[in-house]
Amino acid sequence: MRILFTGGTGKAGRHVVPYLRDLGHTIVNADLHPLGETGVDDLRVDLTDSGQVWGALTQLGNIGELDDPAARDRFDAVVHFAALPRILIAPDGETYRTNVLSTYNVIEAAVKLGIRKVIFASSETTYGICFAPGDKAPDYIPVDEAHPTIPHDSYAMSKVANEVTARSFQARSGVDIYGLRINNVIEPHEYATDFPTYLQHPEMRRRNIFAYIDARDLGHMVECCLNSDGLGYEVFNVANPDSSVGIPSAEVAERFYPGVRRRREMGEWETFYDIEKARRLLGFAPKHSWRDALGMERP
Question: What is the Rg, in whole angstroms, of the alpha carbon atoms belonging to the chain?
Fold first, then answer.
């Protein structure tokens, strides 16, 4: 596919874009800053400007394509990861404005140009746990996509608004639009630097519902979405199958979620961020674990 990928220079994008490139896709990275990755075209785009978004989606990716009679200025899919990635980077209103307006512009242009597949980054924060003041527990565990999305901060508010926007554009167009409620993205080097501390202090992971997603497995999730057609509008939790702490899930529930309703029995080390829907509908099969990186036996 020829793919416009927004935010490819960010923490998640800089792993997902090379993953997709290595699968044979042609990628144009639309970002304010270049990725500089071999075989990936960089295009500086302010996604809050609808004219720039439209232009990015209707032009060639590089000078070499001018001499290529087979080159196209049409994209098969859009993957939209660009955003202010959390609160407390910009004022709250700017976080909301940037994330909502850029997502509206990207999806509107893609739909009006007849692009049949749009994948956008939503967030674990939509469930209202991550950036809530104090210590907030989910309504039930494990948390699936039916859990209420009642945000407590401007970033999560923007992501909920983006899901509403995406659903509206899908309803009027019939294209496939898939939202990824991405958990805490972990780069491979962070296992050695961060996870030993998490093993000693599991409470540090409560805002992420004791879950994580390996950046490489996030690339696999995008691949699954690109390969799955006809689902219409769907949102998916995206996480690795094991929790991010070194104590069994039953102990996590007892220590941190006393009194919280349990929807079903969980595996001994299972994530509290339920990924069954992505497994069932997309064939999502994450492969990486922090245990591998730290030389620990998998359960």
Answer: 19
